[in-house]
Amino acid sequence: MNTVISIVIILGALVFFHELGHLMLAKRAGILCREFAIGFGPKLFAFKKSETTYTVRLLPLGGFVRMAGEDPEGIELKPGYRVGLIFNPEGSVQKIIVNHKEKYDIQKVITVENADLEHRLVITGYENEEGERQSYSVDPQAMYVADYQEMQIAPYNRQFGSKTLMQRTLAIFAGPFMNVLLAFIVLMSFSLFQGIPTKEARLGNLAPGEAAVKSGLQKGDRIVSVNGDKVSNWEELVSFIQQNPGEKLVFEVDRNGKILNKEVTPGEREINKGTKEGFIGAYPSTEFSLPGSVSYGAKQTWFMTKMIFVGLGELITGKHGFDQLSGPVGIYEYTNKATEGGIPMLMQWAAVLSINLAIFNLLPLPALDGGRLLFLLIEALRGKPIDPQKEGLVHFIGFAFLMLLMLVVTWNDIHKFFLDKIDQ
Asked: What is the β-pairing status of strands 93-97 and 82-87?
């Protein structure tokens, strides 16, 4: 249950901040954002604030911001349509009632001759066959009502496609950027909560029941030498311990100015098949400072980003196979392990996931943010946008490919974490 709660909180936060980035930059550009959704599938919860409906959906596999103009709007007033009009106090059309007109307090019913709800915002029509043709101005925030469902019209200047190339690029890029920013904030908070590891060979917290505690070492001890070899920093101490699993070591310890000798036998743990390393259950000493935490957050974010790109490069070059990829099952298993390590480990795992989400979304694949950015780059090079229907088809095919990849990765995870263990 703790693992499930952790996954819901972590993935919910990652998706929320990703989509929040899209929403903030889109609204700043003046784009009408119809929906801000966490998850896919049927709606579980929804409320509307201003022009945007905020929803939580059944399948927690992502989220989206539905911007006007990205997909077909579904608003069409053809000549001959008989519609009801409701006006605002200024005399402009506030609501256009397509059917079930008897259920509304309609002020005028007309037969549409022409309607422009994108540029001129005018409806022209007749009240009856003998009546004169009249034109009605339409409020830029007017509602189109069909089958009791209201949809706000989207004048062209409120649509995604009407904005400058830079505004659209920023609106798309803001999602991955927010995930990187979230990782930085989490890692900075982690260092404020846990402290920043120092480089000196001084012991911090000790794990109960492990070699460090059994040998009589204490928090705050500074290790001067191991088996007579001087130790100048934490990395050298760790190297000595890892290279001697199960071997008795003599630590020269400085404890508040008093020199002591302690015999320590590192425990053993397997890091690869047939390869073991030593450990004593000791963590480095830490210090607390806001500037140091900011620096730590930035450095760790950069380090994690580099390592993910290195792993991606090894995947592309074939150094690692696709069986190394993990999906929902893998995320559950790794989150379960992180949960056992407590909040500090969960925070670091959340940062790794957030950076992974950012980089994955920036891959130039259809249906991902990177794919959409690629189309914007092509538009910049050719001087005009690609046909929206063709782009939509590419994204649809890309989405189908991603779903297939998700199934393959999930099957790999099932083998890795369950079936292979049963065989063993």
From this structure: antiparallel
